[in-house]
């Protein structure tokens, strides 16, 4: 009888025998990792803004007005930045019809006054982050409540024809406002929109 052929197996291990992880060596002039991540996030936000907000004319105007409000009123200061742009875009783009500057401004105030920022509310998610991230995570509980209360007060002022107090401008001359309304009869220009238009073009640079 003939013996069966022998089979030889050769195993080659490419890993180091000690299985110790190699230490990562980074040059001394390497850029700060956190700063790089922050810059990438800013780039994503800029691309998102260009794609989602630039086409909404009323949204751009309303953002400028709220930026001024955040600068003038300390209560609103924590809202300035990326969260403000997200808030305005979500509030205006979800409307079933096109909104003028006045209606868009009031709609954003209504969203804030309804408690979107307070604890237990829907919050504002960041669309530029892979994981579910709250864009208002930096806001304290007290800041959230103060902004909500201030938005409710601003809505009351605008309802009683005192929007100029919210905008921080002098009361608009009624004759001038009536003249503009007559010139734009048949359009979507209202007394409310006239005040916002004048504010955004004359005061905010």
TrEMBL record:
GO terms for molecular function: double-stranded RNA binding; single-stranded RNA binding. Pfam families: DZF_C (PF20965). InterPro entries: DZF_dom, DZF_dom_C, NT_sf. Residues 1-205 form the DZF domain. GO terms for cellular component: precatalytic spliceosome. It comes from the Eukaryota. PROSITE patterns: DZF (PS51703). SMART domains: DZF (SM00572). The keyword Transmembrane does not apply. Keywords: Signal. The keyword Signal applies. Residues 1-25 form the signal peptide. PANTHER family: INTERLEUKIN ENHANCER-BINDING FACTOR 3 (PTHR45762:SF4), ZINC FINGER RNA-BINDING PROTEIN (PTHR45762). This is Spermatid perinuclear RNA-binding protein-like. It comes from Sinocyclocheilus grahami.
């Amino acid at each position: 009888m003939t013996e069966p052929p022998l089979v030889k197996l050769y195993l080659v291990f490419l890993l180091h025998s000690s299985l110790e992880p190699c230490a990562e060596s980074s040059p001394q002039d390497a850029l700060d990792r956190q700063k790089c991540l922050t810059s990438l996030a800013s780039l994503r936000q800029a691309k998102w803004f260009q794609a989602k907000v630039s086409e909404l004319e009323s949204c751009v105007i309303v953002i400028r007005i709220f930026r001024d409000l955040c600068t003038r009123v300390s209560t609103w200061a924590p809202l300035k930045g990326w969260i403000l742009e997200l808030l305005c875009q979500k509030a205006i783009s979800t409307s079933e019809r096109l909104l003028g500057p006045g209606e868009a401004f009031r709609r954003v105030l209504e969203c804030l006054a309804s408690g979107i920022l307070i604890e237990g509310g829907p919050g504002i998610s960041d669309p530029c982050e892979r994981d579910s991230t709250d864009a208002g995570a930096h806001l304290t509980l007290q800041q959230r409540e103060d902004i909500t209360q201030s938005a409710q007060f601003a809505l009351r002022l605008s309802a009683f024809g005192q929007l100029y107090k919210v905008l921080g401008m002098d009361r608009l001359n009624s004759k001038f406002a009536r003249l503009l309304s007559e010139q734009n009869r048949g359009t979507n220009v209202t007394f409310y929109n006239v005040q916002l238009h004048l504010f955004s073009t004359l005061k905010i640079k």
